[in-house]
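Sequence, please.
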């Protein structure tokens, strides 16, 4: 307060105000430069990030609960403290937060995804084709095909499951076996086993059908005659039967994580014979199923669902054709993975985004 007039000192003591600054002090205060601000580093979006952002925007309606994490990520690892604070502050409806696991689990149990929802009616192999581009299709490495016949589905399987390393083919009929052995000679991933997979190790009578053996079965015909009147059983042969676990142990094979079962009514017997070790490894099961017994003692779709529960859940069922709605195929996925297995993989999103960009470029 030295050098300040007494009137100003009195005012300060009574009112508590700060003494007014002199004109030179005011000029110095206003002319003082502001401290330099710390520059903000922004990582420019790469071409891949731009495609990913475009794909997320294009699928925004279906993926609305997911934040576009790519906008707030400073590096590929996403371990920036500011990013972590944003994630912790996300509301309960968003993904990417460990605290939302209960919410996501409850949502997955109440509303299970479906392969057939929002689509026009699909039939036969189109149900399996609907898995293309899903996350689970990129992860499967070991496929077991029980009742492979001639395995004409191999080109589709290669597109659906690009990471396959091993394919086990089971077929007891001599004619289709020759085609399978020729296929295995060309494809190093394939191994052929000339046995019928069943619930016991031994032998059984096998009924050979007139349609090149496609409807051949360990069971006798039921209502199959009504829906497919041109098919009949021509002969009966003795074939070896093996449990899948026995074959895997005998040859030292890796358990499959995907299985196609097409054994004309005996699917329930095959699935019932699987050990807990094999079931724990499985992630996808694609069996042939029926809503009525097309074969003598065949079990129905509801029986297969009850057998596979609670490990697996049915995410889609398609009839073999419109004229036969009681017979077709179903896709079962592991219950703990069903919430994410049917989401599009990043590779598929980029592929679809690139296709849209090419279409728009051609339209210019």
């Amino acid at each position: 307060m030295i050098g300040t007039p007494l009137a100003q000192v009195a005012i300060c003591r009574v009112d508590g105000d700060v003494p007014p600054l002199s004109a030179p002090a005011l000029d110095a205060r206003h002319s003082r430069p502001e401290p330099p601000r710390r520059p903000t580093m922004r990582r420019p979006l790469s071409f891949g990030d731009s495609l990913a952002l475009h794909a997320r925007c294009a699928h925004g309606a279906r993926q609305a609960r997911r934040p576009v994490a790519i906008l707030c990520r400073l590096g590929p690892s996403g371990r920036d403290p500011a990013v972590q604070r944003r994630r912790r502050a996300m509301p309960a409806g968003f993904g990417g937060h460990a605290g939302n696991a209960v919410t996501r689990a409850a949502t997955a149990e109440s509303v299970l995804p479906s392969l057939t929802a929002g689509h026009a009616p699909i039939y036969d192999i189109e149900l399996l084709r609907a898995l293309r581009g899903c996350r689970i299709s990129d992860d499967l490495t070991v496929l077991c095909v029980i009742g492979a016949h001639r395995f004409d589905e191999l080109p589709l399987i290669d597109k659906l499951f690009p990471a396959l390393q091993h394919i086990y083919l089971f077929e007891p009929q001599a004619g289709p076996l020759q085609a399978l052995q020729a296929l295995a000679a060309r494809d190093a991933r394939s191994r052929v086993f000339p046995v019928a997979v069943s619930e016991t190790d031994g032998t059984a009578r096998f009924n050979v059908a007139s349609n090149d053996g496609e409807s051949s079965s360990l069971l006798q015909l039921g209502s199959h005659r009504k829906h497919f009147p041109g098919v009949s059983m021509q002969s009966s042969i003795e074939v070896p039967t093996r449990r899948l676990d026995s074959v895997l142990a005998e040859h030292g094979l890796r358990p499959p994580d995907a299985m196609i079962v097409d054994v004309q009514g005996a699917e329930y017997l095959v699935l019932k014979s699987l050990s807990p070790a094999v079931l724990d490894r499985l992630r996808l099961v694609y069996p042939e199923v029926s809503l009525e017994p097309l074969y003598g003692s065949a079990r129905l779709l509801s029986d297969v669902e009850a057998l596979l529960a609670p490990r697996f859940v049915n995410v889609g069922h398609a009839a073999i054709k419109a004229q036969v709605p009681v017979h077709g195929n179903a896709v079962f996925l592991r219950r703990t993975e069903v919430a994410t297995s049917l989401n599009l993989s990043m590779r598929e999103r980029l592929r679809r985004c690139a296709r849209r960009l090419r279409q728009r470029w051609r339209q210019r």
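The radius of gyration is 33 Å.
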